[in-house]
Amino acid sequence: MGSLNGRHEAVIAVDAMGGDFAPEEVLKGAVQAHRRGIKVVIVGPVDTVERHLEALGERLPVVNAEDAVPMDEPVAQALRRRESSLQVAANLVLAGDADGVVSCGNSGAIMAITLTAWGRQPGIDRPAFGGNLPVRDGSAFVLDIGANTSSKASNLVQYAIMGDVYVRIARGVDNPRVALLSNGTEDSKGTKAVREANEALQKLDLNFIGNIEGNQVFEGAADVVVTDGFTGNVLLKGSEGVAMEMLRLIRNELSSDVVAKLAGAVMMPAFQRVRRRVDFEEYGGVPVLGVDGVMINCHGRSTAKAVTNAICLAERVVCENLVDQIGEALHHDGVERSNRRRRLARAFRLRHQ
Amino acid sequence: MGSLNGRHEAVIAVDAMGGDFAPEEVLKGAVQAHRRGIKVVIVGPVDTVERHLEALGERLPVVNAEDAVPMDEPVAQALRRRESSLQVAANLVLAGDADGVVSCGNSGAIMAITLTAWGRQPGIDRPAFGGNLPVRDGSAFVLDIGANTSSKASNLVQYAIMGDVYVRIARGVDNPRVALLSNGTEDSKGTKAVREANEALQKLDLNFIGNIEGNQVFEGAADVVVTDGFTGNVLLKGSEGVAMEMLRLIRNELSSDVVAKLAGAVMMPAFQRVRRRVDFEEYGGVPVLGVDGVMINCHGRSTAKAVTNAICLAERVVCENLVDQIGEALHHDGVERSNRRRRLARAFRLRHQ
Predict the structure, then answer these.
(1) How many CB atoms are closer than 10 A to CB A285?
(2) Share of chain B above pLDDT 90, in %
(3) pLDDT (tens digit, 9 = 90+) per residue, A112-128?
């Protein structure tokens, strides 16, 4: 389908220094992805990275970056680190030496650096973070989950279009059900922005199912849930909180007496399955949508498995040409692809170094 | 403490016709509350109500109201039903024949009718719905959970003051930790209204602990969580959704094979305890705060137990003079109590009819 697909392989730049367990877990994840046949290039301090790779028994291409963005650094400071692993990884894409980036680093810095390095995708006013929530019989893709604290109706409409394309590509959903998160299902419910977006979305060529409430998200009512970054963040963090507290309650109940302990031991595999269903690790990173390139941001606490999943995801959305497909959905006639050539102008020197 | 306490008993008007299980469950709940020593007056169609009461083996004072507000009726229409049980109950308070109202009816109508009948409490620009969320080792009182879709900083500050007083009275918490719900803990995080409210709350005589995120709500970080009605509704419904889906997952796991079924049977009491922890029934209704009177709104699906709890709650907040205490907290010097005398001007004719 996409312009890369079938022509050459995608290369994913991996920020070795982002995340709470960097570089160990990040590199383990990258090695696993490499062993699954994905081309990766590691970005980080070359000595450290090569020492870790040696211990893992793998040789991977490395691009040196001596600096790194700390997890809690303010965005303005992070942007000044011109030699950070994150910045160097973004530059690789700009130069055509990589096709996408995976980082477990500081989300604010990730958004700012990709936006500065790559710019917004034409037709998008504000990029968004998307995120997967585990819901009944599957998952829901929620955006924005924190890039923009407030959103106008036009932003929400753009999120809906981006979410629709992303879910088709990343999850293979054919005709995603797109919904607006609101405080009631009626079209008249919600903030001014939500009400206006509802009206606009009804006119678009989307499977728009209208407004849904918080509980319906988890009942699996929609594949794409559109909201502003403030509400999306509260929904995401709140649901994580409820799930964790319920697991905690159950764990306490299971250790309350001997009979419960025995029964609990028998049921441990079942609980592990439940826990896995509500675990972000399984979901392997969230995309930055609306920037002119592919960036997958993993949770800061990601271990190797989540990193591997994120690299696989990045490769898939690169091969399916996420950015161009969003562009086409926005404009129908396929205009506004000024940056396409740049992204396709690939340099191969890294690959065979 | 309050002006009613120790002087005479509070009378709670119960809207017999609000809720999905009205009038049966409502009347059972009212009878239970009466048997716990609380003075109630039932408002509804006198024949129907008395027939039910007879079946329950109890005589209670009844005020006739032939009409009722349907659960899904638009507010404008509901307001035109001058003889609805809800309207008549609100009028009883206005006339001094009751001190508070409990209804499981249509929330929109409840807010509109109390606001029209009683007016706003002086010093409050917008009334709010408060709600209890089960959290680690207790519950958090969240407001607004749906009265106002958007809120200015001044509204959020008023919610904080009302929530602080309510939690002291209704839950007996000494120095409630008050927090603003935001998308980050830093003071700089959140919408413009949240940032401004944060600044204002730091100057007040409250135990204000700053911003908290969604997960922290469920970790029990605060006793009072302040937010706008849109976000509060999403948090509440979303957390209900997660809890219900997790219970569903666990139930499915428990019936997956014979061993799990056996273990599940042994553990049923433990699960019931978990389920009870996340069940709104235990929490017995949410107050309308900021109107000039006491109104407790129960969930539409409330059964007798929730109604009884709500009546007990209404009696407590009446006896502790919720409205006056909020007025005092708002003004420190105790001014703005123009309606106090009216509320205290009690008529006793119902009681002994």
Answers:
(1) 24
(2) 70
(3) 999 999 999 999 999 99
Taking contacts as CB-CB distances below 8 angstroms, the residues of chain A near B215 are 237-238, 240-241, 244
Residue A301 contacts B where some CB pair is shorter than 8 Å:
no
Q: Does A231 touch chain B (CB under 8 A)?
A: yes
pLDDT band (50, 70, 90) for residue A340: very low
* Window A:239-278, CB contacts with B under 8 Å: 239-246, 248-250, 253-254, 256, 259-260, 262-264, 266-267, 270-271, 273-274, 277-278
Decide if the complex's ipTM is over 0.90: no
Is B217 an 8 Å CB contact of chain A?
yes
Tell me which of B281, B304, B328 is where a domain ends: B281
Q: Which of B236, B244, B260 sits opposite A267 (nearest CB)?
A: B260
**Which of the listed ranges A276-280, A329-333, B184-188 does the model predict with the highest average pLDDT?**
B184-188
Q: How far apart (Å, rounded) are the C-alpha atoms in residues A236 and A241?
A: 9
The string of DSSP codes covering B172-183 is --SS--EEEE-S
Tokens of A341: 């050539």
- Closest by CA position to A104, among listed A308, A301, A290: A301
How far apart CA A199 and CA A189 sit, in angstroms, is 12
CA distance A213 to chain B (A): 7
Q: Do residue B228 and residue B341 come from a single domain? A: no
Q: What is the mean pLDDT of chain B?
A: 87
Per DSSP, B120 falls in state B
Q: List the domain range (segments joined by +) for residue A305.
A: 1-124+290-353
Please report, for residues A218, A279, B134, B236, B330, the alpha-carbon distance to residue B222 in angstroms, rounded to integers and kept in the order given: 25, 25, 12, 15, 21
**Is the domain of B55 the same as that of B191?**
no
Query: Which CATH number is A323's domain given?
Result: 3.40.50.10950
